[in-house]
Amino acid sequence: MPTPASQLALRGLRDLSTLKWYVIPLLAIVFYIYTIEIKKAKNSGNWDAIYAGLTLFGMDFFNETWNGWIFHFTQRSAFWTTPGETALRTMMGWNIEIMFMFAISGIIYYNTLSDDRDEVILGLPNRWFWAIGYALFCVFVECLLNMGGLLVWEYPWWNRTFWGVWLIFFFGYFHFYVAIIIVIAMRSDKSKILTIAGIYAVAVLMNVWGLGIMGWIY
Question: What is the pTM of this model?
Answer without folding.
Answer: 0.93
